[in-house]
Amino acid sequence: MLALLFPGQGSQSVGMGRDVFEASPAARAVFEAADEALERPLSKLCFEGPDAALVPTEVQQPAILTVSVALLRALEERCAVAPAFVAGHSLGEYSALVASGALAFEDGVRLVAARGRFMQETVPAGVGAMAAILKSTPEAVEAACKAATEATGRMASPANYNAPAQTVIAGHAEAVDAAGALLAEDGARVRPLSVSAPFHCSLMAPAAERLSAELSRTPFVDPDPPVVGNVEAEPNASAGRIAGLLERQVTAPVRFVESIQRLSGLGVTHTLEVGPGRVLSGLVARIERGLERANLGAADDLDGAAAFVSAAQD
Is 68 known to be catalytic? Predict the structure, then answer.
C-alpha cells in the first residue's frame, strides 16, 4: 500500500524543477500555471535563483509546492498513481491536498504565498527563534520548554516532532536559548536554525488569523485519497474540515512521527517522497524502519519512481 509524502520548507535549491520542466509537458504546465497565478516569474526563480531570491518564506513556500506538484504530474504521465493516503510536512500538507484533488493547484500556490507572507510579517526579526534538538526524547524537550518558559517569562514549545530523537522547538529567542541550554546539559545536541520566523508556535497566532480569511474564500472538495494532516496525525476525507485544520496548523506542532506511525498502522508499506530534497525519507527511516522508501526529486528519478509505485500498488 502506497502513501505519497511531500516536503516542507528548507528543501529548496537553485535549479530545482528545471529538468522536469524540460522533460514533461505536464510539469511545464504546472510551472506556467504558478507564474500566472502569482503574476510573477516563480519558475525563473526556481531555475536560476539566485539563492537569496528563494529564501524569503513567501517565495520559498510556493516554489516548493510548485516543484512538488510538477514532479507528481510528470510521474502521472509515466504510470497510474493511486496512493491510499497522502501526507506532507508543514507546507507539504498543501501539496498533499493538491495531490488528493481537494485543492486546486492555482488556489494552493496563492494560499501558500499568502501564508508565507503572513508568517514572515508576524514576528519582527530577532524576536523569535527555532532550534533542532537531537539525541533527546520528546518528553525531555517538552519539559525543558516548560521550564524555560517559566524561567524567562517568554515562550518556547515543540514545533516539529520530526523523529523519535529529533524535535524542533520555536518561540521567543530568549526562551528557545534557555530550553536549548537545559537540554544540552543533559547531553542533547542543539542546532539553532536559520529561519525567518518561529513557525508552529503560539507566536504565529496573528498569521493564523490572517490566513483564516484567505482559507474562508478558498473552495475545497473531499480529499481522495484522504490526507493525514499535521495537526491530528489522522486521515481526513472531509472538505469541511480542511480550512480549520490548516488554520490550526500555523500555531500547532507538526506531528510527523505520529503521522508516519499512523500510516504504517493503516497498512501502508511503501512511501514515496515527492519534491525537492530527501529529508522526509530520512525521517521515515528513523520512525518506521520497515517501510519501503523512495524519492522523486528530479527527472532522473521518474523511471525508478514509476517502478516503485507499480510495485507498491500491485
Answer: no
Per-residue pLDDT tens digits for 137-159 = 999 999 999 999 999 999 999 99
Establish whether 200 is a catalytic residue. Answer: yes
Q: For the chain, how many structural domains are there in total? A: 2
Same-domain status, 73 and 140: no
pLDDT, one tens digit per residue, over 71-92 is 999 999 999 999 999 999 999 9
The CATH number of whichever domain residue 172 belongs to comes to: 3.30.70.250
Domain range for 167: 128-195
Cis bond before residue 50 (omega within 30° of 0): yes
- Evaluate if pTM is beyond 0.70: yes
Going along 42-126, which residue ranges are E strands?
85-88
CA nearest neighbour of 119 among 276, 246, 255, 219: 246
CA atoms within 13 A on the CB side of 199: 27
Domain boundary among 167, 195, 223: 195
> The C-alpha cell of 82 is what?
493511486
Assess whether 275 and 207 both reside in one domain. Answer: yes
For 133, the 3-state DSSP assignment is strand
Choose, from 11, 43, 68, 90, the residue flagged as catalytic: 90
Catalytic pick among 136, 200, 259, 264: 200
Same domain for 32 and 101: yes
Contact between 168 and 133 under an 8 Å Cβ cutoff? The reply is yes
Q: Within the chain, how many helices (H) and strands (E) appear? A: 14, 11
